[in-house]
Specification:
Strand order of the largest sheet of chain A: 14-11-12-13-26-25-24-18-22
Radius of gyration of chain B: 30 Å
Shape of chain B: elongated
Strand content of chain B: 15-25%
Number of strands of chain B: 22
CATH superfamily of the largest domain in chain B: MutL, C-terminal domain, dimerisation subdomain
Helix content of chain B: 25-40%
CATH class of the largest domain in chain B: Alpha Beta
Radius of gyration of chain A: 25 Å
Helix content of chain A: 10-25%
Largest sheet of chain A: 9 strands, antiparallel
Oligomer: heterodimer
Distance between the termini of chain A: 77 Å
Largest interface: A-B, 35 and 24 residues
Number of strands of chain A: 27
Number of helices of chain B: 18
CATH topology of the largest domain in chain B: formyl-coa transferase, domain 3
CATH topology of the largest domain in chain A: DNA Polymerase III, Chain A, domain 2
Strand order of the largest sheet of chain B: 5-4-3-6-2-1-7-8
Number of domains of chain A: 3
Strand content of chain A: 35-45%
CATH architecture of the largest domain in chain A: Roll
Chain lengths: 376, 567
């Protein structure tokens, strides 16, 4: 293997896969990046066995094809610290790679390609084509609610449902839930659903272009995103996604409309004085007024702020985890947010006041039952 | 014919002897007490065949004149008290004037003695309590009392002796106790002709090392309150033993047993003790002899206090204080520590002498107390924290390294939080989007109904759903997400298992909850999480021990590390 490549081209490629290469693994080969060179292209691959990414880059000059696995950290750091100059890679018979610039050389021991895990085969895969911007939007509106708790594995991913006349994504950790539906979507075949691990979603978000389409390939247990120059393969989360529709309340009859950024700033400030462990804040709703309060008995902190809202129902006291409220508000695009409520122990439904065309986006947040209610 | 008659003098003596001379060990105890009362500075105890063929105590005390010797074996003959007033304020170990008479009634006894004022010694031979022979011998300061053929004439007694090993163990226990009670004396123990143990006069601390092994493992307490001077060493929770062997109480130099004192110490440990763990404690109490009555039992091992309540509370208080303090943080000894006493009764062990021991003892004085202090005062709080093996939190402290067990630390925090729920309302209860249905066994179900009120206050929202089915609708805020069902079942199991131990209801629930919902070892923590954990830990009332008595914090001193590197 012998080729010359521009530093910035290679660095860009290395950065695309760096997120997946483990820094410390029980299988040391995974700490390497596979370089494969054919007559036209250099392909580099990184994997943690759950997810693998292969990306292509065109060298300036190809002299001899070949392949070798090289330690990810040292190669990435070295290329990163070089200026934008041509770099030559040359593999010798003893599996050592000499990297030469006009200033000098660096030599590193490689590992045979055969020891690097093969990419999973995607034969018999179904193909789906999606718009880049749609996929990006749906991912970014749901990923925040994914559970990180390994005890309920099915929740540890974004649930993607492709149906004949709509495209859905849902994520929940059991305390909040986010659901987004695109109803302009059409799919000719039978429906497909899968649970995609959040790490793959994050990498996909990084690689999705603004425009154009992306092809997904799906087989038993695995999903492949085919981007322009890059393919991302991920294993899917096994297990059955819970029946989320059942827990979305349909009869919440009280409505609060609030300015999104105002509420966000208020909750942020007030929550600084809540318990660092529970982030508990209290919403006191009354006629067109919302008071947000917190207290931290451990450090003696306390805060209270009031703001104007639209609310015309009976007064109510609600407890929430401020972190969840902030997460939810962050993902609303509209200036106004609507909370629909029933009572202090029922899930609140949160939506933007005006939905985008062909889109239905809603979030749920479960309240914290406040102790004072016991004494009422 | 009259069926009632007076017993012979010998029979009376033998019956009386039964009270005092229970076994060879009691002979040794009486003889050593006499030697101590004689103001000796050296005492030698010789034992043959677990004391049945010979128990001999040699001292260098005042000795007796011929007149005294002849009298000393009569009952109620004593030099130690004279009148009622003396009896109320006993300062000697003996006072009843019974021991020698009783022992001589059930053995062959030889007393060899020389009073310091005389230039001729006396030797008296007694059999069955009668003087058989009186000889003049060469003067040798002090007294030797040899007791042979113990119980030879009382087969009933002899039959009740336990195996030689057991009797020897009792003898050693007496010796250990005496050694601890009078550290400023040269002690020698000889078993079957071997010089088993020779202990030079020593400081109390060294003496503890001699008898118990490494006394620096113990927490030292010294307190003088209302006329009482108390010096004590107690074990750290978790360092206790499986038996009561190493529990000693000395009042004015006398080894005593007193239920109320032991109870005071034990209750101070409370739930810090593991199951089947007995704390090691050595209490030295000095007090006005008029306030304590030792004339309760012929063995004089029981005492009564004039104000038992005061002593009980005092002992409990100082023990509790000591256990709360930072001294309970165990020091980590990388160097293989020598556990157990060096007072072994087999083999010719050379006496373990001071040089090495004192070095170790000194190192306890620099024990890393400041650690926790600096945590609290927080001039520079935890500059850096590391999590190792997702199990321990490591930080540098002034005196070395401190290691915190994340699971037990969190356990302590949650435990206190739950106990606080007992008094005031809980913080809140996170409602669940997906309520969890739980099908319970009859057993679980009845346990649940028993503790449901407590669970509700902690933050569990449970709803009954027909036969033995329960739906978890909400959970405490600090519970590990997704794990609600398992935690609840674990709490039920745990609670049921501990219910029998008579623990407080809340305590049992709190322990189960804390243990099950605390972060586990293996959970990785972020820096803010670690900081918050430690902040909260030090806000608890007892940051050093988890509710089950395991240590939370272990310090590794720089010294220890240095030593390890041979610096």
């Amino acid at each position: 293997m012998k080729f010359t490549i521009l530093q910035n081209d290679l660095l860009e490629a290395l950065q695309r896969i760096s997120g997946v290469v483990p820094t410390r693994s029980t299988t040391p080969i995974l700490e390497n990046i596979l370089f494969e060179l054919d007559e036209e292209k250099l392909k580099i691959t990184g994997t943690d066995l759950e997810i693998s990414i292969t990306t292509g880059v065109t060298p300036k000059k190809i002299e001899q094809t070949g392949s070798i696995a090289l330690p990810a950290r040292v190669i990435t750091e070295m290329i990163r610290s070089l200026p934008a100059i041509p770099v030559q890679f040359e593999l010798d018979e003893t599996k050592r790679v000499r990297i030469t610039t006009d200033q000098g050389y660096y030599q590193v021991a490689g590992i045979s390609r055969n020891e690097f895990p093969d990419n999973p085969s995607l034969s018999e895969a179904r193909s789906i084509e999606l718009k880049n911007d749609l996929l990006r939007r749906m991912f970014s509106k749901t990923i925040f609610a994914v559970s990180s708790e390994e005890l309920r594995p099915a929740l540890m991913g974004v649930y993607m449902q492709i149906m004949p006349d709509e495209f859905r994504m849902v994520a929940t950790d059991g305390h909040r839930l986010s659901k987004i539906i695109d109803s302009s979507f059409r799919f000719d075949e039978a429906g497909i659903q899968m649970i995609i691990p959040p790490k793959a979603v994050q990498i996909a978000l990084k690689n999705l272009n603004e425009e154009g389409n992306i092809k997904l390939q799906l087989n038993q247990g695995g999903l492949c995103f085919i981007f322009d120059n890059t393919t991302l393969y991920t294993r899917l989360v096994e297990g059955e996604y819970p029946d989320y529709e059942k827990v979305i309340p349909r009869d919440n009859d009280k409505k609060m409309v609030v300015d999104r950024s105002l509420l966000m700033a208020t909750v942020k400030r007030v929550s600084l004085f809540s318990s660092a462990l529970t982030h508990q804040v209290r919403f006191s709703l009354s006629q067109n007024r919302l008071a947000v309060c917190s207290e931290d008995a451990d450090i003696g902190g306390e805060a209270r702020e009031e703001l104007n809202v639209e609310y015309n129902d009976e007064p109510m006291e609600l407890g929430y985890n401020a972190q969840y409220i902030l997460d939810i508000l962050k993902h609303v695009d509209d200036d106004k947010v609507v909370f629909t409520l029933k009572n202090p122990v029922r899930a609140a439904v949160v939506k933007p006041l005006s939905q985008k065309e062909n889109e239905s986006f809603m979030m749920l947040i479960m309240p914290i039952k406040l102790n004072s209610q016991e004494h009422q | 014919m009259a069926s009632i008659h007076l017993l012979s003098d010998l029979m009376m003596k033998r019956i009386a002897a039964g009270e005092v001379v229970e076994r060879p060990a009691s002979v040794a105890k009486e003889l050593i007490e006499n030697a101590l009362d004689a103001g000796s500075s050296r005492i030698l105890l010789r034992i043959e065949e677990s004391g049945v063929s010979l128990i001999e105590v040699t001292d260098d005390g005042n000795g007796m004149t011929e007149e005294d010797v002849l009298l000393c074996c009569r009952r109620h003959a004593t030099s130690k008290i004279r009148d009622e007033e003396d009896l109320e304020a006993i300062t000697t170990l003996g006072f009843r004037g019974e021991a020698l008479a009783s022992i001589s009634a059930v053995s062959r006894m030889v007393i060899t003695t020389c009073h310091q004022s005389e230039n001729e010694g006396t030797q008296v031979l007694l059999e069955s309590g009668e003087i058989r022979e009186v000889l003049k011998v060469a003067p040798r300061k002090g007294t030797t009392v040899s007791v042979r053929d113990l119980f030879a004439a009382v087969p009933a007694r002899r039959k009740f002796l336990k195996t030689p090993v057991t009797e020897l163990r009792h003898l050693i226990r007496v010796f250990r106790t005496m050694v601890l009670s009078h550290p400023k004396i040269d002690w020698t123990l000889q078993v079957n002709g071997d010089k088993t143990m020779h202990l030079l006069r020593n400081t109390l601390e060294e003496r503890l090392n001699d008898v118990l092994g490494d006394s620096r493992e113990l927490i030292h307490i010294h307190r003088s309150v209302s006329g009482l001077n108390i010096e004590a060493w107690i074990s750290r929770p978790g360092d206790g033993r499986k038996s009561r062997e190493n529990q000693f109480v000395f009042i004015n130099g006398r080894a005593v047993q007193n239920r109320s004192l032991s109870h005071a110490v034990l209750s101070a440990y409370g739930n810090r003790l593991g199951r089947g763990e007995y704390p090691v404690y050595i209490l030295y109490i000095e007090m006005d002899p008029r306030l304590v009555d030792v004339n309760v039992h012929p063995m004089k091992s029981e005492v009564r206090f004039q104000d038992e309540h005061l002593i009980y509370n005092l002992i409990r208080k100082i023990t509790e204080d000591a256990l709360r303090g930072p001294a309970v943080i165990p020091d980590l000894h990388l160097i293989t520590k020598k556990r157990g006493s060096n007072l072994r009764f087999r083999g010719n062990e050379t006496p373990r002498l001071s040089s090495q021991l004192s070095l170790e003892a000194q190192s306890t004085e620099t024990a890393p107390l400041p650690a926790s202090v600096s945590f609290r005062e927080g001039e520079k709080r935890f500059p850096e924290l590391w999590q190792i093996h997702n199990r321990y939190i490591l930080s540098q402290i002034k005196s070395g390294i401190t290691i915190i067990d994340q699971h037990v630390a969190h356990e302590r925090i949650l435990y206190e939080k739950v106990l606080a729920c007992k008094k005031s309302a809980p913080g809140g209860s996170q409602q669940l989007l997906f309520p969890q249905t739980l099908q319970l066994s009859i057993d679980d179900y009845s346990t649940l109904t028993e503790i449901n009120t407590a669970l509700e206050r902690i933050g569990f929202g449970l709803k009954e759903f027909g036969k033995q089915t329960v739906v978890i609708e909400s959970v405490p805020l600090d519970i590990r997400k997704g794990n609600e069902k398992d935690i609840l079942l674990d709490i039920l199991d745990d609670y049921r298992e501990n219910r029998g131990t008579g623990e407080d209801f809340w305590d049992a629930v709190a322990k189960s909850y804390a243990c099950k919902s605390a972060v586990k070892s293996g959970d990785s923590l972020t820096l803010p999480e670690m900081t918050s954990l430690i902040d909260q830990l030090f806000a608890t009332s007892e940051p050093y021990f988890c509710p089950h008595g395991r240590p939370i914090i272990v310090n590794l001193s720089l010294e220890e590390i240095d030593r390890r590197f041979g610096r």
